[in-house]
Amino acid sequence: RSLSLCPPPGTSVREETRRDPETGLYRVESTLTVVPARGGPPRLAFSCSYVPLPGHGRALHSGSPIRPSVWEPLQEVRLTMRPEGGSVGAGEDVTLTCEAPARPPPRLHWLKDGSPLEAPPGPVLLLAAVGPEQAGTYTCVATGRDQNQRESSVGLSVRLTGWCGPSSVGGRTLQTLALVLGVLGALGAMALVAGIVLWRRRRRQLGEERKPPESQEEEERAELNQPESEEAESSPGQ
After folding, report:
1. Domain span at residue 108?
2. Which segments constitute the Ig-like domain (predicted)?
């Protein structure tokens, strides 16, 4: 028999020798324990051989080797984004890369804001010429052989560049938009009130300029009666 005195790391060998009390023959049992290293070869081959001492028989072999498959459980998921920083300008391309070390390779799918994303399954998600509607939280979900799931998320915001400078599409932009709409609404209400006040004042002025017909007739009668009263006053003195 042969036995390696220096087994590789992660390998142990245990042997037991027993003698049959009836026949007097010896029986050898050898147990090999192997712990595959992460990142090692996916398939291993094992065989057993018995090589006696010279002059004590011929060598024996176990036949076809045993080839167990080695799989690595899913432990973590790493999600990276290019460009880095989580904020990009409108019209730029964004690449999300999902790394999930496991053997066999896990199944991957993508989420956006918690909802399934219509994208082909795979470790790379390409967002071409992003716009405001593509801002949000992207998640890569990996499912291993044992149905164990791991996930990783990254946030994406899209900057809109214009004459007023860059602005970020997100919660702060919505708050700013609400504030601007509120200010515009208040200015509109003030303009409406001012218009009503000016309209009433103008109407009052026009009403004062237009005198009623009765007042005009009284003035004309007063002018006609004034010469008659003057003649009556002058006649007794003559």
Report:
1. 78-159
2. 68-157
